[in-house]
TrEMBL record:
It holds the Pfam family TPR_8. It comes from Algoriphagus namhaensis. It comes from the Bacteria. PROSITE patterns: TPR (PS50005). InterPro entries: TPR-like_helical_dom_sf, TPR_rpt. This is Tetratricopeptide repeat protein. TPR repeats lie at residues 103-136.
Length: 311
C-alpha cells in the first residue's frame, strides 16, 4: 500500500514537472535509478514517511501559489530529497524564468547539477549566484533536514561559496577551489562553518603540495570548540593537526554523508603521508557505498577517474 502511495506521488510530480517545463530546454524524466560515471547503478531509495509528508506540504504550497519564491525553492528542495534531481532542476529552472536575478535559485540548482555530475553547469550556476550576492547582506539558510538542536548553521553566502569550491575541487581546479573556500570561511563566524571550509582548504593545499600552508590554515581549529552539525569535519581537522589518531576516525559502515566525508578525508591523509595504495583502497571502498551523491563519494569517484590516473 505504501509503495503504491509513493508511486502515485512521484507520478504526480512527473506530471507537474512535465507541465511546468513544457517550454523549457531542461530535460526531465522520472528517475528510479542512477548510474554513476564509473558504471555503478543504484536504485533511488524509497523515501520515508516524513520525507513524503514534507514533500506533499511543499507541493501543496507551490500549487496554491506557484509564483512565490519560497514555494518554488522548497518544492525544489523537497523534490531533490526524494532523489528526483532532474525534476528539482526543472522546478528551479522554471523559477529562474520568473526570478532571473535570484541567487537562491542558482544556488539550489547548482547543488543538484553537482549531484548529477554536471559540474560545468554547476560552476556556471554558482558563479552566477556569487555575482548576484555581491554587496548584499548575508542571511541564514533554513535547513531542509534540521540538526538535533534545530539550529541552522549555514548561510546563503557560505553555501554558495562552499558548493562553488566543491565543484571546482571535483574538476581539480584547486586554485579556484581554494579562493571559493576562503570566501566561504570568511562568510560566517560559526564554528561549523569554520571546520567545514577549513577541511577543504587544508586538502586543497596538500593537493597543491604546499604542506606548510596547509598546516597554517588549521590555526582556527581547537579541540574545545562547540560543533553543532559538522562533527565529521571537526574530527578531520583535529586529525590534520595531529590531535586525533587516524584509527579512531573510520567508523564501521559507509553509505551516509558523514561517514563518507570522514573516509574521504582519511584516504587523503594517507595520500599526504605517502601511502597511496591505502588511499586508493579507501576510495574504492567508498564508491561501493549507496550514498552516490554524498560529497565524499563524489570526490572519491572523481579522484579515481582522473587524479590518480594523471599521476
Amino acid at each position: 500500500m505504501r509503495k503504491a502511495l509513493v508511486l502515485l506521488i512521484l507520478l504526480n510530480l512527473a506530471c507537474t514537472a512535465e507541465k511546468s517545463t513544457e517550454d523549457s530546454s531542461v530535460p526531465f524524466a522520472l528517475e528510479d535509478s542512477f548510474t554513476t560515471p564509473l558504471g555503478k547503478t543504484y536504485s533511488i531509495s524509497e523515501p520515508s514517511d516524513a520525507l513524503l509528508t514534507k514533500f506533499e506540504e511543499a507541493k501543496a504550497d507551490f500549487e496554491t501559489n506557484p509564483n512565490d519564491l519560497e514555494n518554488i525553492i522548497w518544492y525544489g528542495r523537497r523534490t531533490a530529497y526524494l532523489g528526483q534531481y532532474r525534476a528539482a532542476i526543472a522546478i528551479y529552472s522554471d523559477g529562474i524564468e520568473l526570478y532571473p536575478e535570484e541567487p537562491k535559485l542558482y544556488r539550489h540548482r547548482g547543488h543538484r547539477y553537482i549531484s548529477l555530475r554536471e559540474y560545468d553547469l554547476a560552476i556556471a550556476d554558482f558563479e552566477k549566484a556569487a555575482e548576484l550576492i555581491q554587496g548584499t547582506e548575508n542571511e541564514i539558510e533554513p535547513d531542509g533536514m534540521p540538526n538535533a538542536l534545530n539550529i541552522p548553521v549555514s548561510t546563503l553566502h557560505g553555501n554558495i561559496y562552499y558548493h562553488l569550491g566543491l565543484a571546482y575541487y571535483l574538476t581539480h581546479k584547486y586554485d579556484k577551489a581554494y579562493e571559493a573556500y576562503i570566501k566561504c570561511r570568511e562568510s560566517g563566524s560559526r564554528y561549523d562553518n569554520i571546520v567545514s571550509s577549513t577541511h577543504w582548504l587544508y586538502m586543497i593545499q596538500q593537493r597543491l603540495e604546499n604542506p606548510a600552508k596547509a598546516d597554517s590554515i588549521l590555526a582556527p581549529i581547537t579541540s574545545d570548540s562547540t560543533v553543532i552539525e559538522n562533527q565529521s569535519y571537526a574530527d578531520l581537522c583535529l586529525l590534520y593537526k595531529g590531535q586525533t589518531p587516524v584509527d579512531s576516525l573510520l567508523q564501521e559502515g559507509i553509505g551516509n554523508p558523514s561517514n563518507d566525508a570522514v573516509r574521504y578525508g582519511v584516504a587523503n591523509w594517507y595520500l599526504y603521508n605517502g601511502d597511496t595504495a591505502k588511499a586508493i583502497l579507501l576510495m574504492e571502498e567508498l564508491v561501493e557505498s549507496k550514498a552516490f551523491s554524498s560529497f565524499g563519494y563524489l570526490a572519491a569517484e572523481s579522484d579515481l577517474m582522473y587524479y590518480f590516473k594523471s599521476k
